[in-house]
Amino acid sequence: MLSQYLAIARREILLIWRDKDLRYILLLGPLVGLLLFYAIYSRQALVEIPAAIVDLDRSHASQELIKNIGAAENLRITTFAESYNELEDLIAKGTVVTGIVIPENYGRDLSLARQTRLAMIVDGSNMIYATNATSTMLAVSRTLGAQAGIKTLIGKGIAPGQATAAYQSVTYREEAWFNPTLNYAYFVVLALALNMWQQCCTLVACMTIVGETYAASWCQIKSLGISRLKLFISKSTTQIAAFIAALLPVFFLAMMVFKLPLHCSLPLFFLFNLAFAVALHSVGVLASSIARTPVNAARFGMLIALPSFLLSGYTYPLESMPGLLQTAAQALPQTWYFQGINLLSFKNPGYALMSPYFLAFLLISAVCYTTSAIIVAKKA
C-alpha cells in the first residue's frame, strides 16, 4: 500500500516538474516577486516629496519658515512659484505633489503675536504622497507654533526658561512600536511576495481533480484499482509539500538576506504556513471539483486568489469594509493568513493568540474538502 502512495507522489512530482510553465510559476514566481518588491521599497521610507513654495511675504520670518520646511526629511523644495495660480498649475501637471503658500504680512503678524494662516495644498490623487506630506507639514507647523508661542511669552517679559516650560507644559512623545522606523519594506515586501506565492499555489491546487478526470491517464489509474481516496491523499500531500518547498527559499531570502523581521519561533511560523497551505489547497480542490475543464478551474482559482489580498484587510482595515465583505473575507484562508503573518512578523503572539487562526484554517479545510468529496461523488 505504501508503495502505491509513493508511486502516486512520484508521479505528481514529475507532472509538476515536466510542466515547464507550472514549474517556473511555482518556483520562480514568488522569488522574482520578492526581489522586485524589495527593489521597489529598498529606500524603506518615502522621502524627498517634491514641494513648491509660494512666498508672498518675502520677509526674514518667511525665509526662516522656508528653511525649516526644507530641513524636513520627507520634503524636497523643488520650485518657488510666484503665485497661487502658478502653484495650482504645477500640482495639476504633477511637477510637485504639495505646495505651501506663505501669505503677505506673515512676518508682521508673527511679530505682533497675531494669528496667521499658512495654506498647504496637497495632490490628493496620490494618497501615499498626500498622507506623508501632510504629516510632515503638521510636524513642521507644530514646531513653528511652539517657537512663536515662546517668543510671544518672552516679549511679555517672561524669562526664556519659564516661557519654554509654560508653553510646553504638556509634551507629546510619539513612539511607533514593533516597526519603530515605520519601514515600508518591513510591512509590505514579504506580504506582496506571499500574495504571489498563494496565487501560484492556487493554480496548482485547481488542477487536483479536474486535471485527472480530464486526462486520459485517469483511465489507467482506475484500471490499476487505485481508489479515489488514495489518489487524492497522495496527490494532495505531494502538492502541499511542493507549496512549502517553494516557500522556503522565499523565507530564506527575506529573513537571512534582506533582514525582514520575524519575531516568533520557527516551529510556530512553520506550522502556521503549513496550516494555511492545507486550507489554500482545499479551496483550490473545491474549485477543481466544480470546474468541467482545467481552464475553467484556473479561472475559478484566480477569481478567488486575486482579490483575496485586498479583502484580507492587510492593505485596508477589514473593520472599515462593508459588513457583507467582512463576512465574505472571514471565509477566505488568505484573510487569516495575511493577518497572522503580520502578527508573527512584528509581535511574537505565541500559540494561544494564534489558535483562532489555526481553527479557521481547520474549518475552511474541512468544509472545502467535504464539499469537494460530495460533488465528486455525485458526478461519479
Nutshell version of this structure?
The chain has 380 residues and is an alpha/beta fold. It contains 16 helices and 4 strands. The protein is 69% helix and 6% strand.
Proportion of residues in β-strands: 5-15%
Number of spatially distinct domains: 2
Strand order of the largest sheet: 2-1-3-4
Which overall shape is indicated by the principal axes computed on the Cα atoms?
A: elongated
Which percent range fits the helix content? 55-70%
The residue ranges in which pLDDT falls below 50 over 5 or more consecutive positions are none
- Number of E-type strands: 4
Structure report:
It is a single chain. The chain is α/β, with parallel strands linked by helices. It has two domains: 7-41 and 184-379; 49-167, abc type-2 transporter like domain (abc type-2 transporter like fold). 69% of the residues lie in helices and 6% in strands. It has 16 helices and four strands. A four-stranded mixed beta sheet has the order 2-1-3-4, sandwiched between helices. The two termini are 24 Å apart. The model has no long low-confidence stretch (mean pLDDT 83).
